[in-house]
């Protein structure tokens, strides 16, 4: 393996490219295969179609499988169209079944059928099983390349088995023990296996307190389990405790990224439109439902202002503070929303409890309201002819608005979470608009009540 630094990376890649252009197969393979698979992936993405054709010719399907697995889905779809059918089939045969299933889950049924027909029967069966599980569940992200061992086996026999079958397994740091019915009975770590007396049996050193997940468990819950226990892998079982696969930490990293992207999309009301690879039309189509809904909420905001038209006609200067009230309410509510969504996602909400969390956010809103109100009461008289009553109306309105805005931002995602929905769908724009409406109602109600003093 060649150790690359930022200084020599470009020079090394240029040497590989020159070998590729010169059609020096031996030199290209020697240099290219020394790279880490991720560096191979990065180099491959910089090639044009003609150069990629040479790569397919110079690398075996097994070698190219490492690169293909690192590609994004859209990149995989483009590359698969360039590959010879036999080459592609052999490549899929060298990939992990979960990686193949991830790809086939996003392509037309005809392509799925073609790929599965070219694979060995056992591999095709495993992939069909993975594709049968619902998306975003433990069953859908698990891998079938794992090692299970019988409880009565001698440790020396297990070590010999590792030498034979270990290279094909996703990980061998944990070995899962099963009984005659293939039910999960225990786990043995590689450390225990190596350091224990080889004459002992697996059941003598295994731990029977195994943390496992069910095939139907949500992938986000599985990710929380990995975080809690710092696992490298976790076994996946059926409802009757039959061991059917494992989930490794590299898959969980992908899940965390996927869930974070999804939450960001929900948070800014653009779910499914955060991918820069999609077209402008597709992005607009995915964003439009929220935008249209918020547009109608905007009409409500306009209606609130229209309701207090007489107040505005008498005290026109009140209009100058409408953006201040709306922006402050929306921003404060969004901050509370972000805190609460993160609290729910990390599990800290359960530790603190709803009452304490909401109390803390309400207290935050009160303090913010006091700070902002005092600031406005000092600044506004200097700008508006020492009108202290106007400063008081704006200051008090903002104080009440910010206090309520934090409550709304904190409570709405909790309610949504109690409904078994993703709390992130309480998007920032939604909370902002709700707080805008309430803020304006509070502002104009106070101003109307005190209009004779303004």
Cα end-to-end separation: 78 Å
Whole-number mean pLDDT: 85
Total helix count? 23
The total of beta strands comes to 6
Q: Could you spell the SSE succession in H and E letters?
A: HHHHHHHHHHHEHEEHHEHEEHHHHHHHH
Strand count, sense and barrel status of the largest sheet are: 3 strands, mixed
Q: From the 3D structure, determine the CATH topology of the largest domain.
A: Tetracycline Repressor, domain 2
CATH architecture assignment of the largest domain = Orthogonal Bundle
The CATH class of the largest domain turns out to be Mainly Alpha
Structural class: mainly alpha
- The parts where pLDDT drops under 50 for at least 5 residues are none
Helix content: 55-70%
Question: What integer value in Å does the Rg equal?
Answer: 30 Å
Task: Give me the side-by-side strand order of the main sheet.
Answer: 1-2-3
Instruction: Tell me the β content.
Output: 5-15%
- CATH homologous superfamily caption of the largest domain: SLC41 divalent cation transporters, integral membrane domain
Give the helix/strand layout.
Blueprint: H1 6-21, H2 25-32, H3 37-45, H4 49-58, H5 61-70, H6 73-82, H7 85-94, H8 97-104, H9 109-118, H10 121-132, H11 138-141, E1 148-150, H12 155-165, E2 174-178, E3 184-189, H13 190-195, H14 202-205, E4 213-214, H15 219-229, E5 233-237, E6 243-248, H16 249-267, H17 280-307, H18 309-314, H19 322-346, H20 348-352, H21 354-383, H22 388-418, H23 428-449
Parallel strand pairs: 1-2, 4-5
Antiparallel strand pairs: 2-3, 5-6
Helix pairs in contact: 1-2, 3-5, 5-7, 8-10, 15-16, 17-23, 19-22, 19-23, 21-22, 22-23
């Amino acid at each position: 393996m060649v150790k690359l630094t930022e200084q020599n990376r470009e020079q090394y890649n240029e040497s590989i490219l020159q070998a590729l252009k010169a059609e020096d197969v031996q030199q290209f393979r020697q240099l290219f295969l020394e790279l880490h698979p991720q560096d191979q992936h990065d180099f491959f993405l910089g090639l044009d179609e003609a150069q990629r054709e040479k790569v397919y010719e110079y690398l075996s399907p097994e070698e190219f499988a490492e690169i293909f697995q690192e590609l994004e889905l859209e990149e995989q779809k483009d590359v698969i169209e360039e590959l010879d059918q036999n080459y592609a089939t052999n490549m899929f045969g060298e990939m992990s079944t979960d990686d193949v299933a991830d790809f086939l889950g996003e392509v037309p049924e005809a392509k799925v059928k073609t790929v599965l027909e070219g694979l060995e029967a056992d591999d095709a069966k495993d992939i069909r099983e993975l594709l049968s599980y619902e998306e975003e569940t433990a069953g859908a992200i698990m891998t079938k390349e794992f090692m299970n061992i019988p409880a009565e086996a001698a440790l020396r026999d297990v070590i010999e088995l590792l030498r034979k079958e270990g290279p094909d397994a996703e990980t061998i740091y944990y070995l899962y023990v099963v009984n005659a019915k293939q039910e999960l009975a225990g786990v043995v770590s590689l450390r225990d296996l190596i350091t224990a007396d080889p004459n002992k049996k697996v059941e003598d050193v295994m731990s029977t307190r195994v943390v496992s997940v069910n095939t139907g468990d949500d992938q986000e819950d599985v990710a929380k389990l990995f975080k809690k226990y710092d696992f490298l892998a976790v076994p996946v079982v059926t409802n009757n405790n039959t061991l059917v696969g494992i989930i490794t930490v590299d898959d969980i990293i992908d899940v965390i990224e996927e869930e974070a992207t999804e939450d960001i999309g929900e948070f800014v009301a653009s779910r499914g439109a955060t991918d820069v690879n999609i077209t402008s039309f597709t992005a607009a189509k995915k964003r439009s439902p929220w935008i249209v809904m918020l547009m109608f909420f905007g009409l409500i905001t306009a209606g609130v202002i229209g309701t207090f038209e007489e107040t505005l006609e008498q005290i026109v200067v009140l209009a100058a503070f409408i953006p201040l009230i709306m922006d402050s309410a929306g921003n404060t509510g969004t901050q509370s929303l972000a805190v609460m969504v993160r609290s729910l996602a990390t599990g800290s909400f359960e530790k603190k409890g709803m009452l304490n969390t909401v109390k803390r956010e309400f207290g935050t809103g009160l303090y913010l309201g006091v700070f902002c109100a005092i600031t406005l009461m000092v600044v506004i008289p200097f700008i508006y002819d020492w009108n202290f009553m106007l400063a008081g109306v704006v200051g008090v309105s903002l104080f009440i608005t910010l206090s309520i805005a934090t409550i709304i931002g904190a409570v709405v995602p909790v309610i949504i979470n109690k409904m078994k929905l993703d709390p992130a769908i309480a998007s920032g724009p939604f909370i902002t608009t709700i707080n805008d409406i309430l803020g304006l109602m509070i502002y104009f109600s106070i101003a109307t009540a005190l209009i004779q003093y303004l």
